[in-house]
Amino acid sequence: MKKLIVLLLIGFLGWKGYGKYQAYTLAANGAVVAEASESRQDGTLWKGPSTTASRFTCDGRTHCSQMTSCEEATFFLKNCPGVKMDGNNDGVPCEQQWCH
């Protein structure tokens, strides 16, 4: 009987401890994701998409090889977080492929 009570107590403590651990790791990961999604390659903060209507939407593409025009690459650079299209940080994306 003592073994059963001890086993149940250990199981309960493990269950509660795992719940606290899981909440802690989710909170820590959420902070990292939020920080990564708000910062841009040039060090400025991303303020969200512009309010003007556009033919393009932020759909997760980040590289010049995924673009189809200079206009599209410029939209992504100005409006989408985490893009990797302006290697020299001069504000002109995809200079070798689209925006000569």
TrEMBL record:
Domain Excalibur calcium-binding: 61-95
Pfam families: Excalibur
InterPro entries the record matches: Excalibur_Ca-bd_domain
Domain of life where this protein originates: Bacteria
Name of protein: Excalibur calcium-binding domain-containing protein
